[in-house]
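Backbones bend. Our protein:
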Amino acid sequence: MKKQITRTLAVAAVLALGATGLAACGSSTNVDESKGKVYYLNFKPESADQWKAIAETYTKETGVQVTVETAASNTYEQTLKSEMAKSEAPTLFQVNGPVGLAKWKDYCDDLTDTAIYKQLTDQGQALTSDDGLQILAVPYVQESYGIIYNKDLLNQYFDASWSSVKSIDDLNNFKALKTVATEIQSHKDDLGVEGAFTSAGFDSSSDWRFKTQLANQPLYFEFKDNGSTTTQPATVKGTYLDNFKNIFDLYINNSTTDKTQLSSKTGDDANSEFSLGETVFYQNGTWAWTDMSNAGMEADNVGMLPIYIGVDGEENQSLTTGSENYWCINTKASDLDKQATADFLEWMITSDEGKNALATEMGFSTPFKTFSDVTTDNPLIDAAAAYTEEGRESVTWAYTMIPSEQWKNDLGSAMLEYAQGTGSWDKVVSAFVDGWASEYAASHEG
């Protein structure tokens, strides 16, 4: 998934990859081959340089060869298939959740006795074998998303004589959010903004915010009702699609941009609109802070609300939090290399150098106990932590069970047509429900 709007590093990685689709990095200095070796196939192009640096540091300190190769953006799955077929296959790779694990579980070693599992803040986040007896994948990045807001502008709204909602504490459900957004839109000149929400762009740099992340909300609540929070269902009913329509309508009817122009609006447009104070609300996540900060936002002027869609009890809802980044150790690697890989990961989450690389250099919010003493300058991570401390219930990442990329693309196309007035909401429902059944069937053939 695209996690940053500005992807200079990703572009540079792609240019460096050429026909191979990989950017290799590692160190051969002071290597002791008797200690085994580590080969990590990295998913995130934006952190390629940081992984190169920390691999070199570890090799210098321990003598263990660490090689990191980074797949080009949107090519990880095909690159992993290619690399796993080689004699020198990755000893460390990642899956994106239950669906990814289903494809690669035969290559995943049991992580029950590893430090990365033992140090998880919530061991329930790990992915297990079908019988639940083995830990096969451990998340190393935890991220949250919701509706980011400009504190100064929202406070101006609260203080206005024409506002109906008067404090952030009262902005805790869809009804209140709709009231605030529509009143801001009606009085945008009074606030000096272009709209309540940033543009809901459906350019490829932005559409994932809606066809994947917003679509998570109706999926999560349906899965929660059905008790299918860890197992991919063959079909979905679309129980909460009316709620999905309501929040999407709120976005597109109260934004900076006419609905007919959404196909050309980008992620950079949305980031710019928010960072320049042209709008109050912006759906995105903790990863967006780097771009917002680079565009001039001040940390003390940014907060984040849950994505309210009008479900019962949502006043106690937290942000949408989860991971699509799970480490797996290749069970087909030699015992020596598997141990070397487990030791490297333990060092990454316990040493000062490793923790700094993950939390500061790469900017990850990590789900390990060993990071309790690590501070962050990311106000969106702080907002997520504050909700947790309040005891609010997180909405988990149900979209990791989406059956295919085609499902997302078809849903996104139907949503855009609906927004532009060239398609009906019924087509969105069909893409969501019928598309799930057909894509699940296609992905499970054989």
Summary: The radius of gyration is 22 Å. The CA atoms of residues 417 and 423 lie 5 Å apart. Confidence is low (pLDDT under 50) at residues 1-20. The first helix runs from residue 8 to 17.
